[in-house]
Amino acid sequence: MKSKQPPPMILGNTRGLGVQRLLVSCLNPDCLHSIVFDVSHYDADIAVPSFTPRMRCSRCGGKRIAVSNCD
To answer: In tens digits, what is the pLDDT along the chain, a chain of 71 residues?
Structure first.
């Protein structure tokens, strides 16, 4: 029997925990560039995982991106 997945973390929940920024990392092994991305001005109901498909590495242009809480 499969266990039910919890809903994804939303920005409103992360802000409640004091997180205002996300760490965005390129997963291209030849690049591995990372930035801190301020999400304090985005709507509270946006899911944190929804940022991943929208991101592209500013250094190599890669789309293999990981997004995680930074603060």
So the answer is: 677 888 889 999 999 999 999 999 999 999 999 999 999 999 999 999 998 998 999 999 999 999 988 77
Contact 46, 7 (CB under 8 A): no
User: What is the rounded distance in angstroms from the CA atom of residue 32 to the CA atom of residue 18?
Assistant: 26
| pTM for the whole structure | 0.80
Q: How far apart are CA 33 and CA 15, in angstroms?
A: 25
**What is the biggest distance separating any 2 CA atoms in the chain, rounded to whole angstroms?**
43
CA–CA dist 3, 13 (Å, integer): 23
Spatial contact of 21 and 37, defined as CB atoms under 8 Å apart: yes
